[in-house]
């Protein structure tokens, strides 16, 4: 059904330039005012092209409210993930964040699923909100063609904040999605770009919310959600013209109801969530993670869980991990060298702990091995301040990692020699790998060859 009113531009609030009451109306205008009357050819009449009667403050505010709740959660879990990397050891990227430095604390080891949840939420919620972001952009698209581009200082500042807001969120989505697909197509460091991009976006979001929150509240109150969701397509009418010009000046007939539009966006979000969560769940769920190639089940048996980097890719061969393999333990002035038999002769401890990859996938497995604190005690480091772990892998960012004191001393922190009752497979780090509760997967070093305990033992 078509609109039951035919408003002209002159009726519309918020476009004073076109008002017949304006002094000088009807005469050719000069300077800035003339610019307003002469949009560039590509923009001429562009506002009229967007005629959906669904567009308006209410729909925009519904999307806005969802994002207002969801995006801060994505941001906060992102910051937590940064802190989990151990920025105090220079392990988080970007290393130097200037005055954006976050309060530093030792990332806890309990609950052991902490990083699994913060990182899983960051990635899954980020993906799930993509359709809502697109819905929100669709709902405000005529605003992006606002003309004249600069009407007042306030309008210029607002448009600038919108540029950072829209540009910021699209940049975060693009870099985030490429990263979890392991597609490093960009010529810059992902972590640095994603980190600073997030701050740019959040700064613009704060400005945007400060400017718009009261309008969001008014718009949501203008149409009770329950009543609006009961309206079918045939009864769908445009909202009243609004000062922001979201409502089309010549709305066309509704091709879908507002509830239909919301169901479409919500349905797409659920679909994306459904294709994502499997990467954080064990069992047959994992097979549903169609969007996340690395989070899927690589095989069966005790070592049939995802592999980040294979032994072959890491350049670790059978010769390195055979009978000549030794674990070197170091601390100030002391050193010990153990072969696999010596490690297996030490007290073995079993713990059920997750590996949670920064790219979003995670898995819970049962690990058996020697406690890190027992290894520290072996070289007299009863209370080390940190431990530096090195892999047989020669190059690469993940060939080493530094652990905090609490991560060394936790009774479930292991140099694992077995998983689910079987020897580690070559791809999972044979003969020995680190596994620590709540530690990002990236620091669970595989093919360990040396651990150096640092910091004076306390008296
Ligand atoms: N030496 C070494 N250890 C490593 C890595 C690596 O590339 N090299 N990848 C890390 C990452 S990013 C993750 S998520 C876990 C994955 O462990 P898995 O491959 O056994 O599942 O191993 C970690 N340990
Ligand atoms: Mo990882």
TrEMBL record:
UniProtKB keywords: Membrane, Transmembrane, Transmembrane helix
InterPro entries assigned: Di-haem_cyt_TM (IPR016174), Mopterin_OxRdtase_euk (IPR008335), OxRdtase_Mopterin-bd_dom (IPR000572), OxRdtase_Mopterin-bd_sf (IPR036374)
Region of interest (Disordered), ranges: 1-26
Transmembrane intervals: 58-80, 121-141, 162-184, 196-213, 261-281
Coiled coil: none
Superkingdom: Bacteria
Domain Oxidoreductase molybdopterin-binding: 324-457
Compositional bias ranges of the Basic and acidic residues kind: 1-20
Protein name: Molybdopterin-dependent oxidoreductase
Organism of provenance: Micromonospora coerulea
Taxonomic placement: Bacteria, Bacillati, Actinomycetota, Actinomycetes, Micromonosporales
């Amino acid at each position: 059904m078509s609109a039951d009113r035919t408003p002209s531009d002159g009726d519309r609030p918020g476009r004073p330039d076109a008002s017949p009451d304006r002094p000088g109306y009807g005469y050719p205008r000069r300077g800035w005012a003339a610019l307003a009357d002469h949009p560039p050819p590509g923009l001429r009449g562009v506002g009229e092209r967007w005629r959906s009667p669904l567009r308006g403050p209410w729909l925009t505010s519904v999307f806005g409210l969802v994002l207002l709740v969801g995006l801060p959660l994505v941001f906060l879990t992102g910051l937590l993930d940064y802190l989990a990397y151990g920025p105090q050891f220079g392990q988080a990227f970007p290393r130097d964040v200037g005055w954006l430095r976050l309060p530093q604390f030792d990332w806890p080891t309990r609950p052991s699923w902490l990083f699994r949840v913060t990182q899983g939420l960051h990635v899954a919620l980020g993906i799930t909100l993509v359709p809502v972001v697109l819905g929100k952009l669709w709902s405000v698209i005529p605003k992006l063609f606002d003309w004249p581009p600069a009407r007042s200082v306030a309008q210029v500042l607002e448009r600038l904040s919108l540029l950072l807001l829209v540009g910021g969120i699209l940049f975060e989505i693009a870099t985030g999605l490429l990263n979890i697909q392991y597609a490093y197509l960009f010529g810059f460091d992902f972590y640095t770009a994603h980190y600073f991009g997030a701050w740019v976006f959040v700064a613009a979001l704060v400005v945007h919310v400060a400017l718009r929150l009261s309008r969001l509240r008014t718009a949501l109150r203008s149409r009770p959600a329950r009543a609006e969701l009961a309206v079918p397509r045939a009864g769908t009418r445009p909202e009243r013209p609004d000062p922001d010009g979201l409502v089309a000046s010549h709305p066309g007939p509704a091709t879908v109801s507002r509830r239909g539009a919301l169901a479409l966006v919500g349905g797409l979000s659920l679909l994306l969530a459904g294709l994502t969560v499997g990467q954080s769940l064990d069992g047959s769920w994992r097979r549903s993670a169609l969007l996340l190639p690395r989070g899927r089940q690589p095989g069966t048996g005790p070592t049939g869980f995802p592999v980040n980097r294979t032994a072959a890719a890491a350049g670790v061969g059978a010769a390195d991990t055979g009978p000549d393999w030794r674990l070197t333990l170091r601390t100030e002035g002391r050193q010990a060298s153990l072969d696999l038999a010596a490690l297996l002769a030490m007290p073995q401890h079993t713990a059920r702990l997750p590996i949670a990859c920064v790219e979003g996938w995670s898995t819970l497995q049962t690990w058996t091995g020697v406690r890190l604190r027992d290894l520290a005690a072996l070289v007299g480091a009863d209370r080390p301040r940190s431990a530096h772990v090195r892999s047989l892998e020669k190059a690469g960012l993940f060939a080493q990692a530094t652990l905090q004191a609490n991560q060394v001393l936790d009774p479930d922190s292991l140099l694992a020699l077995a998983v689910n009752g079987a020897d580690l497979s070559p791809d999972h780090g044979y003969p020995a790998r680190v596994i620590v509760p709540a530690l990002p997967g990236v620091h669970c070093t595989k093919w360990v060859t040396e651990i150096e305990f640092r910091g004076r033992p306390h008296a």
